[in-house]
């Protein structure tokens, strides 16, 4: 096997493992919480849920640029291999967290998931750089597109494995990572070679500290903005959230100040003077802002409204929501490699821009659907969204990576992945807050009206109308009916007809459907605007640009001038 294909298959293995891990945890969260003995709707437990969901991405957002620079200095293959080793150790630790340990067990899960993110960080920053190193310019786009397919296939496997393993033991969710991680470790040790030039420069301490602090503070601010504060459904007025944003901005300014004055910066800010690198990252940022949380809200739409309306129990909805999103993955699987191959031949700009335009079109079509939509129409829109995502991802990555020298590829990819992670975190906070704000304005009245029509007692009307909107949506996301948390004494005192109505799969979806769609529609409109802006920046990337070819041509021109 040629070495370039050894690199591609190994990095595909890493992408497969990472995506299985991400999706399998998402699908089995209800089982994990039950195994730990935690009620996610109890006071104060929402914080643990947030950290299990967001802790992994917060760590990634903080470390990627630093890990990229470390890899450029110490060797990409070496640090890539360490990524597999750390991921393996974390997976073993996660698999032995004892059950029925409540919040202690949840804290252990959060900490070990963060350790896992460290391993994932080394894998992420180096995989794209290793592919770019191994493949010639005219084959990079296709290779990156094929690598993207592995990530999507892993997403599908994660959904299937999560649905199967959740019925046995929640520990198996983490055990399943161990064979993949061990195999990747051994393959990397014995097959990969570090042939790239290493940067023998001192570590930029101040750059590392200021960037890490700024990203941690900003990520924490957006994370805790999702948690209720005082009488508010969200935490935007929390003084700690406001302080996090202010200090985060201060440290970002200090990071730029130090980077412009140090001889060996953590990240070469002059790379943003290169047009494809700058506009490619801007369009990536706007793509993450536009798609991240909207897709999350679409999953809640499926799990909390559509699937229960069509006879699926709440315990089944996380798995089947993933199945219903398969057309989007299929679109990405088909058009990811196609976009990459076309990029190799014609350049990145036209296909990355076309991908963003198609994504924008799919978002607009989503706004036309009712909450109880026609399934065929929904699946076609999801496929269209996947087509756009597949056409955008590989050309955009190729344009960014082709714009930097071989010695800067890991740190440049770290910056690219950091921008992607931060945009997803910001997207989650902004769009979820917007949807919750609009949703919570109409929900109490809709709940009270529906219960009154069923002749429910005033105490029950008051209790159900006061359930936080965020609790209802996260309950739907976890595959748990929030109404199941009512005290047994109240349930047993209800008339049989009212009890049957409350426990039916159609009661809650019909109550929350219209209110949720208002919030979702406003979110999609904003995401649509951001995506169109992303398409404009993508179109401004300029023509084909390859760092090596550019500087070779400049050298030849200087020789001719002489």
How would you sum up this structure, described in words?
By secondary structure, the chain is mainly α. It folds into 2 domains: 1-201, MFS general substrate transporter like domains (Growth Hormone, Chain: A); 283-545, Growth Hormone, Chain: A. It has helices at residues 3-27, 29-36, 46-74, 76-95, 102-134, 140-165, 172-175, 177-191, 205-224, 239-261, 275-309, 317-324, 326-346, 349-366, 375-402, 409-453, 458-465, 469-478, 488-492, 496-503, 507-539, 547-561.
Secondary-structure blueprint of this entry?
Blueprint lengths: L2 H25 L1 H8 L9 H29 L1 H20 L6 H33 L5 H26 L6 H4 L1 H15 L13 H20 L14 H23 L13 H35 L7 H8 L1 H21 L2 H18 L8 H28 L6 H45 L4 H8 L3 H10 L9 H5 L3 H8 L3 H33 L7 H15 L1
Helix pairs in contact: 1-5, 1-6, 1-8, 3-4, 3-5, 3-9, 3-16, 4-5, 4-8, 5-16, 6-12, 6-13, 6-15, 9-10, 9-16, 11-12, 11-15, 11-16, 11-18, 11-21, 13-14, 13-15, 14-15, 14-21, 16-17, 16-21
Which residue ranges are poorly predicted, with pLDDT under 50 across at least 5 consecutive positions?
Answer: 551-556
Rough shape?
A: globular
Rg estimate, integer Å: 24 Å
Q: Would you tell me the structural class of the helices and strands?
A: mainly alpha
The tally of beta strands, per DSSP, is 0
Main β-sheet description: none
Helix content: over 70%
């Amino acid at each position: 096997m040629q070495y370039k294909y050894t690199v591609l298959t190994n990095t595909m293995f890493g992408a497969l493992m990472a995506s299985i891990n991400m999706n399998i945890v998402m699908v089995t969260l209800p089982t994990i919480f039950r195994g730990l003995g935690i009620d996610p709707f109890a006071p104060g437990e929402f914080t643990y849920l947030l950290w299990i969901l967001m802790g992994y991405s917060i760590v990634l957002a903080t470390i990627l640029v630093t890990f990229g620079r470390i890899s450029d200095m110490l060797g990409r293959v070496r640090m890539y291999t360490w990524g597999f080793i750390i991921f393996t150790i974390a997976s073993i630790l996660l698999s032995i967290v004892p059950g029925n340990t409540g919040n202690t067990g949840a804290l252990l899960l959060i900490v070990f998931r963060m350790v896992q993110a460290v391993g994932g960080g080394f894998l992420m920053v180096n995989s794209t750089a290793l592919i770019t190193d191994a493949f010639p310019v005219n084959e990079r786009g296709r290779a990156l597109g094929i690598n993207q397919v592995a990530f999507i296939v892993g997403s599908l496997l994660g959904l299937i494995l999560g649905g199967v393993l959740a019925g046995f033991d929640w520990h198996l969710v983490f055990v399943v990572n161990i064979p993949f991680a061990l195999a990747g470790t051994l393959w990397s040790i014995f097959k990969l070679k570090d042939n790239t030039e290493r940067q023998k420069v001192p570590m930029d301490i101040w750059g590392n500290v200021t960037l890490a602090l700024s990203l941690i503070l900003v990520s924490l601010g957006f994370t805790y903005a999702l948690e209720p504060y005082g009488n508010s459904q969200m935490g935007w007025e929390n003084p700690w959230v406001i302080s996090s944003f202010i200090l985060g901005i201060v440290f970002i300014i200090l990071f730029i100040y130090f980077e412009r004055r140090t001889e060996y910066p953590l990240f070469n800010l002059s790379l943003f003077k290169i047009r494809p690198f700058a506009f490619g990252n801007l369009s990536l940022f706007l793509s993450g802002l536009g798609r991240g949380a909207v897709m999350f809200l679409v999953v809640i739409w499926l799990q909390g409204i559509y699937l229960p309306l069509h006879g699926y129990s709440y315990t089944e909805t996380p798995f089947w929501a993933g199945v219903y999103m398969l057309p989007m993955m299929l679109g990405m699987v088909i058009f990811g490699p196609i976009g990459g191959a076309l990029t190799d031949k014609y350049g990145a700009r036209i296909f990355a821009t076309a991908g963003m335009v198609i994504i924008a079109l799919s978002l607009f079509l989503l706004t036309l659907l009712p909450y109880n939509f026609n399934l065929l129409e929904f699946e076609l829109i999801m496929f269209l969204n996947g087509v756009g995502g597949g056409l955008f991802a590989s050309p955009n990555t190729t344009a960014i990576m082709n714009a930097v020298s071989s010695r800067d590829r890991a740190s440049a990819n770290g910056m690219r992945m950091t921008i992607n992670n931060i945009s997803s975190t910001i997207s989650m906070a902004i769009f979820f807050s917007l949807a919750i704000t609009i949703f919570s304005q109409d929900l109490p009245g809709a709940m009270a009206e529906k219960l009154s029509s069923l002749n429910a007692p005033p105490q029950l009307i008051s209790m159900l109308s006061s359930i936080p909107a965020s609790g209802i949506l996260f309950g739907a996301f976890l595959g748990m009916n929030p109404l199941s948390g009512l005290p047994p004494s109240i349930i047993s005192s209800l008339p049989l007809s009212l009890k049957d109505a409350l426990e039916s799969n159609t009661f809650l979806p019909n109550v929350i459907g219209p209110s949720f769609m208002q919030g979702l529609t406003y979110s999609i409109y904003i995401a649509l605007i951001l995506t169109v802006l992303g398409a404009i920046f993508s179109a401004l990337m300029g023509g084909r640009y390859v760092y090596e070819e550019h500087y070779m041509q400049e050298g030849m021109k200087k020789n001719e001038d002489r």
